[in-house]
Design brief:
This protein is mainly alpha-helical and 262 residues long. It has 13 helices and 2 strands. It has a two-stranded antiparallel sheet. α5 packs across α10 and α10 (183-189) crosses α11. It comes from Azohydromonas lata.
Length: 262
């Protein structure tokens, strides 16, 4: 634990602002305003993510046990994929030009922090896909080859397998969500270490468990809605959530100490 003590101490320099329970709805409202003000970068990201989701569906169409984990694992790596849109929201906040070039510049090849954080999220997503696939293959009462098989044997089955699968996913996703809810925008906005951003994210969740639980439910619900529309809804949902996540970070983390930091 002593290895992390400097990061823990530095994270404590960032205050966590109090928020009411329903503040996540305000983040969505501000995120929608950003998407309307700079639709180009957001829709470009949304199209890319929708195409990626469609590619997953095609590649795993005969292996729904793998597809279920891949789609849910997509939620774990989404904060990284939205990096460019955090930069767009920051530019709008600063009254600077907010274009696709602004989003692309956020992917600095010399920024090792983003690489490290990306690898951690990729590891978490891959771990969940493998765990989900193993769980469904082991406990499903019948082979799962098509989405209908998943609905009949897992969702509607009498074994409560679907509930157990959701619970397993929740247990694995909760620490990832707590580690990333403000970490990625913070890494973009300030040159702090990865662990400083992660510990700050955990402090935010621990001080506001109910609003952040609502935020997690909104993210999951809107993403599932986007997927249920044959991925077309993701074109709007993903950039909307990305811009909203930037406002969540700005609302939750007190950055007034930054002028004092080297």
């Amino acid at each position: 634990m002593r290895t992390f003590e400097p990061a823990v101490e530095q994270s404590r320099r960032f205050g966590v602002r109090p928020i009411p329970l329903l503040r996540p709805l305000g983040w969505l409202a501000r995120g929608w305003q950003d998407l309307r003000r700079a639709p180009g970068p957001g829709l470009a990201h949304g199209v890319a993510m929708a195409l990626f989701g469609a590619l997953l569906a095609v590649l795993a169409k005969e292996h729904v046990w793998l597809l279920a984990g891949a789609f849910s694992g997509f939620l774990l790596v989404a904060p990284l994929l939205a990096t460019g849109l955090y930069a767009v929201s920051r530019a709008l906040y600063r009254k600077q030009p907010a274009t696709l070039a602004t989003a692309l510049r956020a992917w600095k090849p010399d920024d090792g922090r983003l690489i490290v954080f990306g690898l951690l999220l990729a590891f978490a997503g891959t771990g969940w896909v493998m765990t989900s696939a193993s769980f469904l293959l082991t406990f499903s009462p019948a082979p799962l080859r098509t989405p209908l098989d998943f609905i009949v044997h897992v969702v509607l089955g009498e074994s409560r397998l679907f509930e157990a699968w959701l619970m397993l996913g929740g247990v694995m996703a909760a620490p990832v969500f707590a580690s990333t809810v403000v970490a990625m925008p913070m890494l973009l906005d300030r040159r702090v270490g990865v662990m400083v951003a992660v510990f700050t994210s955990w402090r935010v969740v621990m001080q506001h468990p109910l609003p952040l639980a609502l935020w997690a439910a909104l993210i999951m619900g809107l993403t599932l809605l986007g997927m249920a529309t044959f991925m077309l809804g993701l074109i709007v949902v993903m950039p909307w959530l990305a811009h909203s996540s930037w406002h969540a970070y700005r609302d939750l983390v007190d950055t007034s100490v930054w002028d004092e930091m080297p």
